[in-house]
Amino acid sequence: MFYCNIFSYFVAIFSEDKEIKRLVKDVEDTLETIPQLKSTFSLQAEIDLAIQPLRSENAQLRRFVQEIIVLIKCCKRIFLWCEHYV
Q1: Whether residue 65 sits in one domain with residue 37
Q2: Is 27 exposed, middle or buried (CB count within 10 Å of its CB: 0-12, 13-18, 19+)?
């Protein structure tokens, strides 16, 4: 990755300075923990994982609305039946 080349350059220039080496190592270690900088990072996979709970909630709400529609149709039939015999 690009940042590795930069740090390698700094290490080569300041190879005698132990503090610079330690600082560069710390920065490299920190950068390695950032998932977006890894070659295996998949933005689409991250998006899919993030919206999965929303998809589940959406499916639940759709089922709930379908059940409500069925209940409304039943109530309408009962109302019409009662209206017919009253």
Answers
A1: no
A2: middle
